[in-house]
Amino acid sequence: MITPLIVATALFMEQLDGTILATALPVMAADLHEDPVALKLALTSYFLSLAVFLPLSGWVADKFGARHVFRSAIVVFTLGSILCGFSNSLLTIIIARSIQGMGGAMMTPVGRLVLVRTAPRHELVRAMAWLTIPALVGPLIGPPLGGFLATYADWRYIFWINVPIGLLGVVLATRFIPDLSEAHARPLDRRGAMLSGIGLCGLVFGFTIGGRGLVAAPLVALITSIGAIALVAYVRHARQTPHPILDLRLLRIPTFRAAIVGGFLFRVGLGASPFLLPLLLQEGFHLTPLQSGLLTFAGAAGAIAMKTTAQPIINRFGFRRVLIVNALI
């Protein structure tokens, strides 16, 4: 089971980085002389980069080999972390986080692809468990660790701790991950990649800067409109091309469609909480970053605890009932 643990190393690094950053954001904003809410661009720039490069991950892995792409992605993510640590302005940290996003877009999806292709079918569920448990450790230790570093050291250390983890991941990937590739990779949907990238970036960036006074309102409306138009154009394009970069025909599968729609609504809240809660605790209640981190890590602790009890509960009450009750909770 060495492959799931290697992939989990990358996922751990990504989750740790995100939760540490959210906890230290107010301290970073004070040091950079920026509004803490404006510094959310450091978080958004990462996801913008993900939106552009994530759809390409499958094709790149098939074309150049999963081990090479996975290893290179770890290197890019680690390099982005180093640049974040040396950032001295909002612009430089946005650029560095975008580089991190390029690595993250290839790192986790390609790692999961390796796991699916190498694990025996009867061991796949167990392999996924090995993958998710270490990944949950990142959100568990990230907030208190980030709070400790931001309170008693320098916020730049929250990025530099990725360096030894990244080096370990590169060594393990080189030694243990097989070099999987497709003999005949499907053609790259360049037009689809361009339309989806422009569409997602335009919408996300437009919503991010809207109402902040960073740019004029007509420009915000223009950026958002370009994003929406590009996504509509991509939907039309995906219906006509045989190998779309994002295959929307999968949404015809009812279970997949329900998971995507429900997961989207769930992720809206889940994605906002790590950013808003530390701001509330530190800016509103005037807690230290360490105190904030010691409160916000409780959600990850609950998630890990449920990993050991979820299967018996599902067996007793049924998957659908448990899913509905947990959604309400």
List the helices and strands and how they pair.
Layout: H1 2-32, H2 41-53, H3 57-64, H4 66-85, H5 90-118, H6 124-152, H7 157-160, H8 162-176, H9 190-209, H10 217-240, H11 254-284, H12 289-296, H13 298-307, H14 310-317, H15 319-328
Provide an overview of this structure.
By secondary structure, this protein is mainly α. It contains 15 helices and no strands. α1 runs parallel beside α11 and α14 packs across α15. The longest helix is centred in the N-terminal third of the chain and has 31 residues. The chain starts with a helix and ends with a helix. About 40% of the residues are buried.
Largest sheet: none
The average pLDDT is 82
Beta content comes to under 5%
Q: Topology as H/E string?
A: HHHHHHHHHHHHHHH
**Shape estimate:** globular
Helix percent band: over 70%
Distance between the termini: 34 Å
How many helical stretches? Answer: 15
Radius of gyration: 20 Å
Unreliable stretches (pLDDT < 50, length at least 5) are none
Give the helix/strand class.
mainly alpha
Number of strands: 0
Multimeric status of the protein = single chain
Keywords for this entry:
mainly alpha; 79% helix
Task: Give a brief outline of the structure.
The protein has helices at residues 2-32, 41-53, 57-64, 66-85, 90-118, 124-152, 157-160, 162-176, 190-209, 217-240, 254-284, 289-296, 298-307, 310-317, 319-328.
